[in-house]
Amino acid sequence: MGQGSSIGSELSRACFFSSLAGFLYAYTVVCSGVLLTDTSFVTNICSTKLNVDDAAQCEASDVSDQPSEWVNFCTYFTALFSVGAMVGAFFSGQLSDQVGRKVTMMASAMFFIIGTAMTITGRDTAGVLFSRVITGFSMGLMSSTSQVYISEISTPEMRGMMSTVLPIVLTIGLLSGCLADYIGQGLEALTRALDANWAAATVWQYMLGAAIPPAAAVLVGMAVAPESPRWLMAHEGYRAAEQSLRRLRGLGPALEGFRLGKRGLLPGLRSGGGGGGGAAAAA
């Protein structure tokens, strides 16, 4: 009973930390959108980075009345994140096949933390926009790899259920981003009412920074999680894969089925690769 509970907890933890990728992606997308209309962010960019004479013009309701520097910044701020995400997703399969699902997830979490920190502390628009590429790259890399990892460590009976986890986590991320914006607006109004304009100007930084702890959780959680048995089978052999499978599923039919199927599985992995797009499990 205790062993089964421990095994289930190990598998659940691995799936949980991996699924946080969906939360981070959704939260970041929402925050990226609301920041462009957030007074503290608009004022910070227009006044201190773009050096617009009248920062209030950046909040004009008609885009044609807004300074061209601000309009161009908004375009690049949004587009570069998407470009980075596409590049990250494109290379995720090859990279995760070479270095492993765990390492890829950990690296993407680190990139996310660095990119977000650069956005918050950027001294000029070039630094902020470059940070968007890094953040987008990390999201494309993490989101793609997490789905492969979850499908490879899940039991056949769990795969249907686990396939619904990511949409749920995405929805939670979207909701959290909206709540962060709502709370941020309240804090900004409160600090301005108290004449603490210095605090109001930093609200957007806390909104973005709130995503760093979940990213750190992915980094730490994946560091202690087992590697995908399928990847281990292809790169380190049967014994390493079996050891990972023991941690995830324990003894029993799953492990026995893995033993019986190893001869047919290994040649297929070596010829077809671990496959970032091929999410078949090891058992």
From TrEMBL:
Highest taxon above the source species: Eukaryota
Coiled coil stretches, renumbered: none
Listed GO CC annotations: membrane
Membrane association type: Multi-pass membrane protein
UniProt KW Transmembrane keyword: yes
One Pfam family in the UniProt entry: Sugar_tr
Transmembrane segments: 14-35, 70-91, 103-122, 128-150, 162-183, 203-225
Localization terms from the record: Membrane
Listed GO MF terms: carbohydrate:proton symporter activity
Keywords carried by this UniProt record: Membrane, Transmembrane, Transmembrane helix
Residue ranges of every copy of the Major facilitator superfamily (MFS) profile domain listed in the record: 14-283
Family: Belongs to the major facilitator superfamily. Sugar transporter (TC 2.A.1.1) family.
Name recorded for this polypeptide: Major facilitator superfamily (MFS) profile domain-containing protein
Organism of origin: Heterosigma akashiwo
